[in-house]
Amino acid sequence: MAGPLEYLRWRGDLNYKVAPFNSVDGAILACVAYLPFDSSTTSHTLKEACERILEHYKAEIDLTKRTEAALITKSPRFGNLEILDWTSRLEEKPTPLQFAALTVKLDENTIVVSFRGTDSSVVGWNEDMIMNYSYQIYGQTVARDYLETISAKYPDKKIYVVGHSKGGHYAIHSLAESKPEVQDRVILAYSYDGPGYRSLVSDSDSFKRALPKMRTYVPEGSVFGIMLDHPERTLVIKSDYPMMHQHSPLKWNIGRDSFVLADGLSTSARVIRHALIQFNKSIPAEKRGQLWSAIFLAFENMDITDMNVFTEHRIKGPWTLGRVVMGLDPEVRHVAIEMIKLIYESAKNNYLPFSEIDFSNYPKSNDSSKAAIFFDSYDFKD
User: Fold this and answer.
1) What InterPro entries is this protein classified in (predicted)?
2) Which end of the chain lies in a sparser environment, N or C, as judged by fewer CB atoms within 10 Å?
3) CB 253, CB 260: distance < 8 Å
4) Which residue from 86, 114, 152, 109 is spatially nearest to 20, judged by alpha carbons?
5) 4-265: which CATH topology?
6) pLDDT tens column, 178-197
7) What DSSP element (H or E) covers 22?
């Protein structure tokens, strides 16, 4: 079935007066934030920025990004959008921060703020791991401040906020934590396979006030997007790709100008979610924090700055990871081994009862406004 790249070909010639902004447009702009822009792109159109990328960075980006950039240069719907701001920060100290955001002018009355998700930098992955044991990262504050700054700079504009993965987390969080006058100007905040929230965040009055403007989309085989809970409206999207390739919204199914809903989350996604919940309940946050801090300190000591070092070479990658693990303090290494065992046991113990269920006769939902898409949730506060 067709996906957002086909949408670029089919609908890319229509302006927003003919076909209003929709969730597929939001997904495309969330993915555009991953392109290698720099501050010089401000005041240029997306077409001009993408032409420059294809000329100077073509060899440095994968085929999907090259295809997206090439299609945008031929799509007035996206190519004519003016870039109002590009901000990028990568900081190791005092707190890990991998942050990038793009703001474009949709029309005379509306702008779109797009947050980038995690890139391949070790700093970005370190930031993600901090979320596993603290659920609060510095980037959330940076995202909120960015939205409020852009809002103040363009005080007469309505705003869409979008993001994929961690960027989706930022999109929702920036709306939830912004001042009421900023929340009132946001039309919708779209998160594409963002990880969700714990009650510590979603129980706040500010989050609840903005809740009606939040939309999250996860693929039927989601992994990252089911890590935590989604109190906001969440929809499950059909994808023809294997489970591990469904994280990108460019690989989700669309019909004309909207996503195609799946029947619900797949059995495998539910197994993984149960395993994640069991894992987070079984190992104290302090121990998880101790492990991840030690691992990323080892990365720093070995001058590893990009996670691609573990995946680009079939032999060198595992060998490098082995060096990292063996270089850990023995006590921390023991914690790592125990955590791996627990993840394996949790997955194994959860899989059997799930695999025996006939899901064709089991209640499933693809839209949380109608029924819960999860069978369980994190039922404790921390």
Assistant:
1) AB_hydrolase_fold, Mbeg1-like
2) N
3) yes
4) 109
5) Rossmann fold (3.40.50)
6) 999 999 999 999 999 998 88
7) none
Other Cβ atoms less than 10 A from the Cβ of 272: the count is 23
Least confident of 10-24, 210-224, 264-278, 310-324: 310-324
Residue 17 DSSP SS3: coil
Q: For the chain, which residues make up each domain, given as ranges? A: 4-265, 272-361
For residue 220, give Cα distances in angstroms to 124, 152, 242, 260, 279: 25, 38, 10, 11, 22
269 within 8 A of 246, measured Cβ to Cβ: no
Task: For residue 215, give Cα distances in angstroms to 41, 104, 257, 350.
Answer: 29, 20, 16, 29
Model pTM?
Answer: 0.84
User: Phi, psi (5° rounding) for residue 128?
Assistant: -60, -40
Q: What gap in Å lies between CA 252 and CA 27, rounded to an integer?
A: 10
DSSP 115: E
